[in-house]
Amino acid sequence: NEEIFKNVISHAKEYGFVFQSSEIYDGLSAVYDYGQLGAELKNNIKTYWWKAMVQMHENIVGLDSAIFMHPKVWKASGHVDGFNDPMIDNKDSKKRYRADQLLEDKIAAYEAEGEKLKAESLQTEMDNALKAEDLPRLKELIEEHKIVCPFSKTANWTDVRQFNLMFATQFGAMAEGSEEVYLRPETAQGIFVNFLNVQKSGRMKIPFGIAQIGKAFRNEVIARQFIMRMREFEQMEMQFFVRPGTEMEWYNKWKETRLKWHLALGTNPEKYKFHDHAKLAHYANAAVDIEFEFPFGFKEVEGIHSRTDFDLSQHQEFSGKKMQYFDPEVDEETGKPYGNYIPYVIETSIGLDRFFLVTLINSFEEQDLSTEDKQDSRSVLKLHPALAPYKAAILPLTKKDGLPEKAREIMDQLKLDFNMAYDEKDSIGKRYRRQDAIGTPFCITVDYDTLTDNSVTIRHRDSMTQERVAIQDLQKIIGDLVSW
Ligand code: ATP
Questions:
Q1: Annotated binding site for substrate
Q2: Where does ATP bind (predicted)?
Q3: Closest ligand 1 atom, residue 302 Cα
Q4: Which of 133, 192, 242, 477 has its CA 20 to 30 A from that of 162?
Q5: Strand (E) or helix (H) holding 252
Q6: Using CA positions, which residue lies closest to atom 20 of ligand 1?
């Protein structure tokens, strides 16, 4: 499995999907750049999400709020005081760890050794310590269970300290008199503070949602596993505002709707599972993760949280501005309008980069195509055609006799509707392999017959079958397969 993951990472680099940021300077830890094909794939994922969430729902609208927000926003949201990880340093290796992660690893080790009771009791003790924010107790547990640093193999630990995950910077030209602001650690707060702006200007009626895609920043201490956990990443979030008391109904609806979105890409349903949160964040009354089976195990890709009226109430308190909605609908029980209230919120929050990784892992295959007399293999990205960076590649059989000109003519027509690749270098077989490796669903070969019969050969990426079709039918054939 580790091997598969390594291959996915090197494939992503080799074909221009993902590069390490500032690579010529040896990179910047947990920051990545998307290359020419990565940018296309990422955009297609965004479009798939935006269409499904905004354009397919009359009662959901989009937003694009700023990364910088008033510092009080993060006081109100609880991020200044509560967005912390308990960290511990090993004095010998000088390496820093998340205390809860060290304990989790120990629990997993006990389980692997069949020490079920030990695992369970440590889990309970850790949960209690985390809940009570009892940092000395976390250290005690680490010592009691003789946890050593994976590098130095020593148990020479510092105390456990809270480490805030927000990046701070100076706002204004001069150090003195300038104000400290944060890079947002989630996009959701931009939605909450604009709740009434959107509701009033869009004349939205509850239930309704506001969706946005944007960057978020977290000073993650343990940054590993490629684009799984980054310091700069993108989120696709939707906050759905509902009448208090109806939140569980909507929570369950969004849980199902979001899983369907994942499965609509043709993923094996066994690769996904729900994971209910046993420990709830301070703002939530129900929370579930949609987990995907990565090569390193089932891990969260998306969270669905019932956030109650926590955020809007906090902003009402901190800003002194009413965050209420007037609901004119009549309550059947009382015969009176529901009137003014602070809505409850169901949130769906998915990491764009993490989902990008899901897409790569899910679609990457190394196939052995050897026959009795010939060794052969290919790397293929079986991307859903709607996500593929290029929808089709145009390949003139040779570089002469008017074939490139004819190929360009076909390309010029199709590129109005689809992102197209053009390739005339190397043998046709090699060109097919290059397109397979970047997930192009169709290769269109222009040959000598094309000049007289106006037809081309179209090759399908997954089945590798070929068929002869009229040039005038290409648009419909490609269009049918790349749409949802
Ligand atoms: P985790 O437990 O993995 O740190 P989280 O519970 O803190 O995640 P949320 O705050 O619920 O995550 O964020 C919603 C989504 O944003 C996550 O499901 C994940 O896909 C994505 N995400 C969160 N942190 C990162 C990160 N550092 N890098 C990439 N994606 C992230």
A1: 98, 186, 233-237, 347-351
A2: 218-220, 300-301, 351-354
A3: 18
A4: 192
A5: helix 247-263
A6: 351
